[in-house]
Amino acid sequence: MAESTRSNEVTFRLSRSRRSVPRSRALAHAALSTWGVSQDVQDAAELVLSELLTNALRVPVPSDRQVGVRIERSPTDGLLRLEVSDAGAGRPEVRAPGAEETGGRGLLLVEALAHRWGVEEREAGIGKTVWAELKAPDIVAEPVGEEIAAAVVRPGQHVRMWGGWHAVVSVRSEPRDDTGHPHVVLGLTEGPALRVRATEPLVVRRGEDV
Q1: DSSP string covering 103-146, please?
Q2: How far apart are CA 189 and CA 170, in angstroms?
Q3: Separation between Cα atoms, residue 42 and residue 136, nearest integer Å
């Protein structure tokens, strides 16, 4: 299995094995948890991905072909996009199985849970990509800050530290220490005061922008 991760995207390739279905759910769970997706949306996304992957594994293709999976979040649109690519021909269609049939309901479930879904030809190589998008309004874009020296940080700004944003309530300069470097002490609304070199680069944002 090959895997790569970006801030808004996770991609991986899986072997053509039934064990790949629970593996894909585990990888999706890890990504969606990191992105702060609500439990309801997370459950629906994992179920949709399972159905798309199960369908892809049933498509006849050369034995050495893997299945590609891509999960993308769009904070601007509030959407999650799930993609499953395979090397098989044809296009999946929603079926209406009879009451006694045990299969054939995967795309009915996808259609019910997804905001929309569809099929595209792969840009490179043979086969297709089946995708589904789910509404995820709780996805929030990570605030982007400006990197400045600690000495010019001012009260009212927010500093990126310890995995989150913290409001600065006070700034105090300290004399040079034994190493000859001046320091500043930033008082924060939460956690201990932050003592750093005056030249230390910190990521900050204005208070009203956070």
Answers
A1: S--HHHHHHHHSSEEEEEE-SSSSSEEEEEEEE-TT--PPP--E
A2: 9
A3: 9
Nearest CA to 40 out of 141, 134, 132, 140 is that of 134
User: Tens digits of per-residue pLDDT, 113-134?
Assistant: 999 999 998 877 788 999 999 9
Based on the domain organization, do 128 and 53 belong to the same domain? Answer: yes
Task: Tell me the CA distances in angstroms from 130 to 30, 162, 207, one per residue in order.
Answer: 22, 39, 42
pTM, two decimals, is 0.62
Residues 6+ apart with CB under 8 A from 94: 107, 108, 111
Pair of tokens at residue 30:
């890890």
pLDDT tens digit string along 27-82? Answer: 898 888 878 788 999 999 999 999 999 989 888 877 668 899 999 998 888 899 99
In terms of residue numbers, what domain contains 129?
2-135
32 with 131, same domain: the answer is yes
In this structure, what are the phi and psi dihedrals at residue 155, rounded to the nearest 5 degrees? -55, 145
Closest to 142 in 3D by CA, of 83, 188, 73: 73
The residues that bridge with 160 in the sheet, in sequence order, are 165
